[in-house]
Amino acid sequence: MKKLILVIDDELTTCVLLENFLKKEYDVVTVSSALEALKKLTEFIPDLIISDIQMPQMNGFKLLEEIRLIGFLKHTPVIMLSGKTESSERIRCYRTGAQDYISKPFNPEELREVIKKNLYPLNYCSSW
After folding, report:
1. pLDDT tens for residues 104-127?
2. Beta carbons of 26 and 49 less than 8 angstroms apart
3. What is the pLDDT of residues 3-28, one digit of tens each?
4. Are residues 34 and 78 in contact, defined by beta-carbon separation less than 8 angstroms?
5. Element (H, E) at 64
6. Domain formed by 4-126, architecture
C-alpha cells in the first residue's frame, strides 16, 4: 500500500507539479487552501504533509499550529515550502513543529530525499 501525502498550496502549478512528480511512488491529495486542508484532515490521516507558507485566509504557520493541536496528527511529518530563504522563517517553521523546510523553487530530487527521510527514517539512515 502506498503512503499518502497531502499537498497544500494555493498555486495550482505547484500542486500539479508535486502530484505528477510524486504519484508514481505515493498516493497524493492536493488542496488549494489551509481551510480546505483542515477539512480534508477530518476525512483521512496522511502519512506526510507538504504545505506552502504564503496562502490567503490562513498561512502555513497557522495551519501547522492547528495540525499540531489535532491529537492524531501530532507526530505527522510536515514539510514546509516557501519562496523565502531567510533563516528566521526556517527557524519559525521548526519551532512551530515542521520537520523540514524547502525553499521554492525547489529541486525535485531534494524533495524526494526529504520525503523519504521523513517517511522512512530508519531505512533512510540504515542505507549509510
Report:
1. 998 989 999 999 999 987 765 555
2. no
3. 999 999 999 999 999 999 999 999 99
4. no
5. helix 60-69
6. 3-Layer(aba) Sandwich (3.40)
